[in-house]
Amino acid sequence: MEIVRILHFLAGFAIMASIYAIFSLGLNVHWGQTGLFNIGIAGFFAIGAYTTALVTSPLPTGELANYVEQAFGLNMPFLVGVIAAGLVSGILAIFIGIPTLRLCGDYLAIATIGIAVTIQRVFNNERWLANGPQGMVGLKKPLGDLVAPNLYNFVYLAIVVVILVVIYYAVERGIRSPWGRVLRAIREDEVVTQSAGKDVFLFKMQSLVFGAVIMGIGGALYAHNVRAIQPSVFNPLFGTFIIWIMLILGGSGNNKGAILGAFVVWAIWSGTGYLIDQVIPVTWAARAPFIRLLVIGLLLVGILLSRPQGILGEEKQVSRMM
Amino acid sequence: MVELTGYGIVLGSIIALGAIGLTLIYGIARFGNFAHGELMTLGAYFALFLTVWIFPALGLSETRLGSLSFGWPMLLSFIPIMLIVGGVAVLIDKLVYRRLRNLKVGAVMLAISALAMAFVLRSLIYIGWGPDFHFYSPGLRPMLELPLGLKLRPDQIFIIVVSWGMVGGLYVFLQRTKMGKALRAMADNRDLARISGIPTERMTTYAWIIGGGMAAAAGILLGIDSQVRPEMGWQLLLPLFAAVILGSIGNPYGALIGAMVIGIAQQVSTYWLPAAYKPAVAFIIMIFILLVRPKGIFGGS
After folding, report:
1. Which residues contact A29 (CB under 8 A, 6 or more apart)?
2. How far is C-alpha A68 from the geometric centre of its chain's CA atoms?
3. Closest among B211, B240, B204 to B37, alpha carbons compared
4. Which of A18, A69, A139, B26 is the most exposed place for a label (fewest CB within 10 A)?
5. In angstroms, rounded to a whole number, what is the distance separating the alpha carbons of residues B267 and A19?
6. Inter-chain residue contact A297 with B119, CB threshold 8 Å
7. What pLDDT sits at residue B51?
């Protein structure tokens, strides 16, 4: 039984790492392939998580209705929730893209931070929408009746990995196509791409939406994993910054790197949490999370200075012959 | 409404000090300093350290100045703290940003490293002082009834005076002194400035000292106005950038106007909206400006 428990714990780790790998792939479409500077991933993360929560949960009834308020509850299956999360996140991206994508990169960065903050505040303050600061609990467990609860992580891991693989192939397919080459051309030089007759704005918009759809799906998978979401989860550290570290560590522009980075950074994050709890004195326990934050921040600065291309670096995508 | 406008002017004055430094660094170092909010927080905490722990230990008097909520120690700590935080900003520039500049990476990479520095600085503040709120001085602060229905605390009048004094000082510096002119020339055209013999690396250092120092002052003033907490600067980052974009990136006078607009809009909005939506108000104004005038109010065509 001990072995099963350890495996179950590892499956729990792999689920979170795989979900982060999905975010990292989405960011790789934005930043790694197109050079779009999105530092509001938390916004797409949150919108995906809340969309699936509202789409898949039933409206509260009986005693529960006194404690839980939500704008609607469609009681749809898990897959519908995931797809809806991707769609809503993609639509949000269109609205962010319209004012910002014709301008230089920093504007998009500020706008995405802004939308992330705004979304978090809206879900926190509008209790009628999704139960305010308490958030929503008891989200659906897809295929939950298949196995005993203490083995469920394995089932969910399988679901997440299947979706991760589908997304990985979709992104690979996209970036190896002529479409992907235009995106990389935009990343390298917008003016030259424009003068080659490409509608830069349109391509950037497509990339922004594509990446946002992936992030929305990631948010939905996260929501059904923890099964209880509150606005405070979708903060700049957990929802944005750690994903940037994953992509840059793994190698931006490289999809395998994006996935590798997610697993490595999530292992460091989980590992340092355990280590710091063991090492530091009890009186400092309240400050332990911030020591982790310091370590992870210095890690990013260190990578940027010593190996900006990441572990794997960008893959050559034109031809293996060249 | 008039009352909220008054608070808006106070907030706008604080944002202005941060935004002017941010836009100056934008113009000179050519990237968005996402750690600017943390420089403000750092200033506020250094002031807490000096006035609550160090000065009382040295036996400096705690007596308040007139009806202000603080005494001489606070006034004395402004200049050294501005210099220290300016020094911290220069140190970060030398240790991180300059090395990245030498690697010839793009502006976005610098901005990402600034974001990383924001997290590093914030975690150091958390480790040093913990996550709790602090006040420079305890007790209630009375309101002054001013003409036209304005109500402000003496502290807030102090904030406006100090902030506008510094902005005025910077104006004279940028317009009249040789170094100020060199800074403006460099923000206008880096290459032209360099071939005219302006030492661009050294100018970058000065820009960080000025930007960091003004951010520190803004942080202290923000701490005087409300309270000192680790997220105070981070939460002001969006209004800072909104002010900078509103006034056209790189333009200090534009940033001043932008800051006042954002500050007043944020406070007046609480008349209809929950106060939690203040950052969202800054964001909506910014998006609106980007749609109508993408280069800001003072930008060229």
Report:
1. A171, A174, A175, A207, A210, A211, A214
2. 27
3. B240
4. A69
5. 39
6. yes
7. 86
Judge if pTM exceeds 0.80: yes
Q: ∠ at Cα B188 (B236, B247), nearest 5°?
A: 35
CA A184 vs CA A24, A171, A188, B283: distances in Å: 18, 13, 6, 30
Given CB atoms, is A288 within the 8 Å cutoff of chain B? no
User: What are the tokens at A116?
Assistant: 């992330």
| Residue pLDDT, tens place only, B241-274 | 999 988 888 888 899 999 999 999 999 999 998 8
What was the pLDDT predicted at B301?
38
Q: What is the DSSP letter of B152?
A: E
| Residues A151-176 pLDDT 10s | 888 999 999 999 999 999 999 999 88
3-state secondary structure at position A95: helix
pLDDT at A319 over 60: no
Residue A47, CA atoms < 13 Å, CB-side half-sphere: 26
Q: Three-state DSSP class for B88?
A: helix
Closest CA–CA distance from residue A269 to any residue of chain B (Å) = 15
B115 touches chain A (CB under 8 A): yes
Side-chain-side CA neighbours of B90 within 13 Å: the count stands at 16
